[in-house]
Amino acid sequence: MRTVQMTLDEDLVATVDRITRQLRTTRSEFTRMALREAIAKQTAARLEELHRKGDEKRPVGRDEFEIWEGEHAWVDE
Q1: Cα 25 from Cα 33, distance rounded (Å)
Q2: Is the CB of residue 23 less than 8 Å from the CB of residue 30?
Q3: How many whole angstroms separate alpha carbon 73 and alpha carbon 66?
Q4: What is the DSSP secondary structure assignment for residue 69, as one 8-state letter?
Q5: pLDDT above 90 (res 64)
Q6: Backbone φ and ψ of 62, nearest 5°
Q7: Of the four listed, 9, 14, 22, 61, which is most buried by Cβ atoms within 10 Å?
Q8: What is the C-alpha separation between 76 and 11, in angstroms, rounded?
Q9: What is the pLDDT, as a whole number, of residue 60?
Q10: CA triplet 64, 44, 23: central angle to 5 degrees?
């Protein structure tokens, strides 16, 4: 692992310290977890935007999924 120095607001550090005590973890582990979650969220948002742009560029046609209509399997429970 690599050590990275960061500058944070005092209130943010205090909040992180409180949460890490509750979770019985370290600042570093908490930060790694938060960064991974933020990266995953950003990645998902980017992919959703690409999907939205693709739908705008090539909208779904009226009969595009018609071929699959007969493939539905309805199960009564």
Answers
A1: 11
A2: yes
A3: 15
A4: G
A5: no
A6: -55, -40
A7: 14
A8: 55
A9: 84
A10: 145
**Listed residue (52, 44, 16, 43) closest to 32, CA to CA:** 16
**What's the token pair of residue 30?**
């908490």
* Predicted local distance difference test score (pLDDT) of residue 54: 93
**11, two tokens:** 């209130």
Residue 22: which H helix or E strand, with range?
A: helix 10-23
Matching residue, tokens 């309805």: 74
Residue 50 has pLDDT above 90, yes or no: yes
Rg (CA), the chain: 23
Can you tell me the distance from the alpha carbon of 42 to that of 12, in angstroms, rounded to the nearest whole number? Answer: 21
- Contact yes or no for 3/14 (Cβ under 8 A): no
Of 24, 33, 28, residue with least CA distance to 8: 28
Q: Where are the domains of the chain?
A: 29-56
